[in-house]
Design goal:
Rossmann fold; five-stranded parallel beta sheet; 15% strand; single chain; binds 1,4-dihydronicotinamide adenine dinucleotide; 2 domains; 327 residues; alpha/beta; seven-stranded parallel beta sheet
């Protein structure tokens, strides 16, 4: 099977070359998929895409005209695909529903620890021979209340880690996971979670219902000085409302691995360019904000699983079998 890979980074090419079925012929392109770049898929039966590739109705229509039949997402989330249009046009869309929930959960806990104990500031200080502790005061995680929104694969791992720190863990999810209750966490409503949580971390998918779940109204219900963590999808958070809440000190700490407008920024080296996104630039001015560029998934173990599962998905379809990871 010939597969055209969009948004390829060096590490994607290395991983697919190392861990995929040799029967797959990969063509690696660095361009992000959009209406302008989609023509590169001409002559390919399958394409492989990532989180910020655009698969809206016009792009899907063009891909169909070019002869593409299979879309293999090398990620879990599929909010960037217009699924009803894709199925109407007869595409088979597959994804990697679970590759390493630990990778993302551990990164989110890393953000919590870093914001709390200010490792990023300490690292810079000690490299300057500055061993002053003023401004580095943290708090114990032990005994704090953490609100987890979404107890699927990643949220469940995060709950387990945080319970291990001795936190009280309150969870919100329309589906109760008995494993989470057995571990010692409690399910509550959002209305109960907001005023009690010292830390709130998001692990739910981006859907039409969850866009801007964190907004001016929900922020008003939270504790003053709350720590907010988002490793899920950027648009779960209304960034402008969050900036207001940072200015008023309602939010005391903000850790983001995802950002609403990340498609124009993340996965690229823009260090010699002027960033025109003023909302993002404002975020970076706050001393209590820590942003990573959608790297929560990025571990060796996750890259191996992503490559193997994407390859297995494509090989199943090539053999005419039904793939269980079809959306
Ligand atoms: P999952 O599908 O296993 O779990 C999601 C959970 O959220 C489900 O239990 C679902 O019932 C719940 N949920 C849905 N809507 C909700 C709402 N409005 N409020 C509360 N809970 C809600 O998904 P998984 O694997 O745990 O991934 C979660 C999200 O993490 C993905 O949708 C993806 O957007 C993001 N992700 C981010 C990565 C990164 O590198 N930053 C990597 C992988 C995933």
């Amino acid at each position: 099977m010939k597969v055209c890979v969009f948004s390829t980074q060096k590490y994607d090419e290395q991983a697919f070359t190392q861990w995929s079925d040799p029967a797959i012929e990969w063509t690696f392109l660095s361009q992000k998929l959009d209406l302008a770049s989609a023509h590169a898929a001409d002559g390919f039966e399958a394409i492989c895409v990532f989180v910020n590739d655009t698969l809206d109705a016009p792009v899907l229509q063009l891909l169909k005209e070019l002869g593409v039949r299979v879309i293999a997402l090398r990620c879990a989330g599929f909010n960037n695909v217009d699924v009803p249009v894709a199925s109407q046009l007869g595409f088979t869309v597959v994804r990697v529903p679970a590759y390493s929930p630990q990778a993302v959960a551990e990164h989110s806990v890393g953000l919590i620890l870093c914001l709390d104990r200010k490792f990023h500031k300490a690292y810079n200080r000690t490299r300057d021979d500055n061993f002053d502790l003023n401004g580095l005061l943290g708090f114990n995680l032990h005994g704090k209340t953490v609100g987890i929104i979404g107890t699927g694969r990643i949220g469940t791992v995060a709950a387990k880690i945080l319970l291990g720190f001795g936190c009280r863990v309150l969870c919100v999810d329309p589906v109760t996971n008995p494993q989470v209750i057995d571990m010692g966490a409690e399910y509550v409503s959002l209305e109960e979670l907001y005023p009690q949580a010292d830390i709130i971390s998001l692990y739910c998918p981006l859907t039409p219902d969850s866009v801007h779940l964190i907004n001016q109204q929900s922020l008003a219900k939270m504790k003053d000085g709350v720590m907010l963590i988002n490793t899920s999808r950027g648009a779960l958070v209304d960034t402008k409302a969050v900036i207001k809440a940072l200015k008023s000190a309602k939010i005391g700490y903000l850790g983001l691995d995802v950002y609403e407008q990340e498609a124009d920024l993340f996965f690229k080296d823009l260090s010699d360019q002027i960033i025109s996104d003023e909302v993002f630039q404002r975020l970076l001015t706050f001393p209590n904000v820590l942003i990573t560029g959608h790297q929560a998934f990025f571990t060796v173990e996750a890259m191996e699983q992503i490559s193997r599962i994407t390859s297995d998905n494509l090989m199943m379809l090539a053999r005419g079998e039904t793939c269980p990871n079809t959306i």
